[in-house]
Design goal:
The protein is built from four helices and eleven strands; from the N terminus they run αβββββαββββαββα. By secondary structure, the protein is α+β, with helices and mostly antiparallel strands. It has two domains: about 60 residues, Alpha-Beta Complex (Type Iii Antifreeze Protein Isoform Hplc 12), CATH 3.90.1210.10; about 120 residues, no CATH class. The strands form three sheets. Strands 5, 6, 7, 8, 9, 10 and 11 form a seven-stranded antiparallel sheet that branches. A two-stranded antiparallel sheet has the order 1-2. The longest helix is centred in the N-terminal third of the chain and has 35 residues. The N and C termini lie far apart (about 115 Å).
Amino acid sequence: MNSRQRRGAVLLVVSVVCAVAAFAGVVAVVSDARSQVGKKTTAYELTTDVPAYTPLDSSKVRRIDVPERWLPATALSDPGSFQGKIAAVPLKKGSLLQSGMVAAKPSLRPGQMEIAIMIDAETGVAGKITPGARVNIFATFAGRTDSQPDTSKIIVTDAQVLDVGEIRAFDKDVNSQRQSEQGVPITFALDAADAQRVAYAESFAEHVRLALVAPGDTSAPPQSDRSYTLSGDNGASSAGSPQ
């Protein structure tokens, strides 16, 4: 073997040694990364903002694989743990779905009953009332005589919404007081007295409207503020008087 052949053989051996060293380095890096990442598990990430009390389903989340060691203990990994439930709080797109973010759909308590009425689709709901929401129910009544003023009343406070139906046309008759053409059936969980108030208002009020109660708000309007007439509005009178 001449000197040129010997140099070639040495270079070949050096190349093989470098390749083996590089391969070993890659293997070591991958092994180290795997040891740090560890086993992966399933989690679910929100693909859109979800308002509070809105039903959750597979269209609002996507499945992702997350290293088990980095996953919070409260993370949901089973679709059955959120499907058919509602958002307990407003949820943001990209958030990892966790147990504290979901709640079961509302159900009746002892002494309650379901009652559904048609609410004006524009002024009564406006797309913001969802199952699980809590609302105050307003009804406006016309005065029965010329001497009696029109009156707006809060007939029920903190009513729990069980279901919101699809928009459809009102079934009007000759005695109907309704002015709007379309409504949404809203189902409430109410005790007997409040259910009677709601049924009466649907039959005889000129308008029935819902006011959404903020999540976590446990206060109720005082009795003095639950009935309103324009003639009895001291604030309106003072606002219109000269300074």
